[in-house]
Amino acid sequence: MQKIRKIFLRVAVVTVLLSFLFAGGAGAFSEIDLQKLKATGRCPGCNLENADLRAANLHGADLSAANLLDANLSFATWTDGSKCQVGSVGTCNH
């Protein structure tokens, strides 16, 4: 019984530690990807989830296959030169 209790406790501790480890990066954009976009205007396949791209000039930027889930695009200039409306989140609403 004591041995089972120790195993259970170890499994519980490992589970809690892993949940903290993986929760920290979930739903967060990559700062490296954001800097790459700003510097080069090219960021295919980048993780920009939850990034603040308000009023960003994305005209001509390559965002093919980029993750823009919950990214704030309000007032941004989209890749085709059109303006994103206020409240554009995850996609540019023209």
Task: Walk me through what this model shows.
By secondary structure, this protein is mainly α. Helix content is 34%, strand content 0%. It has two helices and no strands. It has helices at residues 2-23, 31-40. The longest helix has 22 residues, at 2-23.
Global Rg? 20 Å
Strand segment count: 0
The biggest sheet, with number of strands, parallel, antiparallel or mixed sense and barrel status, is: none
The fraction of residues in strands falls at under 5%
CA-CA gap between termini? 65 Å
Task: Please report the number of helical segments.
Answer: 2
Present the secondary structure layout.
Elements (H helix, E strand, L loop, with lengths): L1 H22 L7 H10 L54
Which features would summarize this protein structure in a list?
94 residues, mainly alpha, 34% helix, 0% strand, elongated
Question: Can I get a quick summary?
Answer:
By secondary structure, the protein is mainly α.
